[in-house]
Specification:
The complex is a heterodimer of chains A (about 120) and B (about 110). Chain A is mainly β and about 120 residues long. Chain A is built from no helices and eleven strands. The radius of gyration of chain B is 13 Å and the shape is globular. The chains are: A mainly beta (about 120), B mainly beta (about 110).
């Protein structure tokens, strides 16, 4: 257990419905990341926050996706009008927030989304 | 970020050392080498990282060549619980590019 928690762990929804996932990072971590992983592939970066500011978004983050981190603590990832192609594992990670590349990310267990 | 090349799969006998290679010939001076692993249906687990010196922790050792163009992750005494996909990542940015990794199977 890394200390990063995600809820729910599994979500099954019907196409067209909206879903929201929550991530609670390690308490002293300033940065929070979202990744998506489809079957047989490695995780792919979606977006990250430094405290409450969303600083980078991947082109994978379509208009139907929105992420927030309102108080710089937990984060939510919402998918509107879900499509079958959104079926994936959604992973959250957090890090202390050092500048540069020594800022180790620790991952949560993920939320597995299945869109029927 | 520099790209990495890893073998698709490897086997290792239980109790033996597992040596997982990674090529990163385009690595730049400020980029670190990170290793994560992912056991089926779990989130990636951080293992170790390094810049140019060899590193060791309770999980593994990381050997980086002098020219930094390749590295090897060593699990000194592999157990069945080490069966996982291992990702070698070179990064100088805020996001991690995972690739498809090496599937290590530890055989009893």
């Amino acid at each position: 257990d890394t200390g990063v928690s995600q809820d729910p762990r599994h979500k099954i929804t019907k196409r067209g419905q909206n879903v929201t996932f929550r991530c609670d990072p390690i308490s002293e971590h300033n940065r929070l990341y979202w990744y998506r992983q489809t079957l047989g592939q490695g995780p792919e970066f979606l977006t990250y926050f430094q405290n409450e500011a969303q600083l980078e978004k991947s082109r994978l983050l379509s208009d139907r996706f929105s992420a927030e981190r309102p108080k710089g603590s937990f984060s939510t990832l919402e998918i509107q009008r879900t499509e079958q192609g959104d079926s994936a594992m959604y992973l959250c990670a957090s890090s202390l927030g050092f500048s540069g590349s020594t800022d180790t990310q620790y991952f949560g267990p993920g939320t597995r989304l299945t869109v029927l | 970020d520099a790209k990495t090349t890893q073998p698709t799969s490897m086997d290792c006998a239980e109790g033996r050392a597992a040596n997982l290679p990674c090529n990163h010939s385009t690595i730049s001076g400020n980029e670190y080498v990170y290793w994560y692993r992912q056991i089926h249906s779990q989130g990636p687990q951080y293992i170790i990282h390094g810049l140019k010196n060899n590193e060791t922790n309770e999980m593994a050792s990381l050997i980086i060549t002098e020219d930094r163009k390749s590295s090897t992750l060593i699990l000194p005494h592999a157990t069945l619980r080490d069966t996982a996909v291992y990702y070698c990542i070179v990064t100088g940015a805020n996001n991690l590019f995972f690739g498809t990794g090496t599937r290590l199977t530890v055989i009893p």
